[in-house]
Amino acid sequence: MTSGTFLYFAYGSNLLRERLLIHNPSAVFECVARLDDYCFGFCGESRLWHGGVATIFKRPGRHVWGVVWRLNVADRDILDWQESTYNPKEVGVVAIGDRVLRCRTYVRRGHSSKPSPQYKNVVVTGAEQNRLPEEYIQSLRSFTDNGFQGDIPVYSQIMKEVRQQNVCV
């Protein structure tokens, strides 16, 4: 690892570049990777997102796809603040070529719950943006949302950034 940086494995809303960059401008895409012996789900209730948020559960034989981001060490406190309802955890993820990378990730504890459609869309859009395996993207789409139809300001901000990036490409 480059001195002064750390690796972060994102599997939820921070898959989406525009979401992560709101508070973590030093983040640079490193690679797509797989976390073995875990599965993806939604839990808890987020006031920000009006529903459940992403987490991982230990499940032998299963795996979670995600993105490894490289961030400046100086930004770790900002990421910890952003993920303050989660517990940080060091994990080994498998990148292309079976290269194992040690990464920081975050795990939230709580009861299973449904995400808002907006939060689920951010996760799915991030998976598509980073070209995660199609069958995995389909599994993310298959989660039932809670049907929330109100305004979520952070969602509006993120999607505005996504639209601007798509215009500039």
TrEMBL record:
Residues at the active site: 83
Keyword Ribonucleoprotein: no
Binding residue positions for substrate: 8-13, 119
Pfam families, alphabetized: AIG2_2
Phylogenetic placement of the source organism: Eukaryota, Metazoa, Spiralia, Lophotrochozoa, Mollusca
UniProt keyword terms in alphabetical order: Lyase
CDD domains xref list: GGCT_like
Protein name: gamma-glutamylcyclotransferase
Source organism (scientific name): Batillaria attramentaria
Enzyme category, top tier: lyase
EC number: 4.3.2.9
Superkingdom classification of source: Eukaryota
GO MF annotations, alphabetized: gamma-glutamylcyclotransferase activity
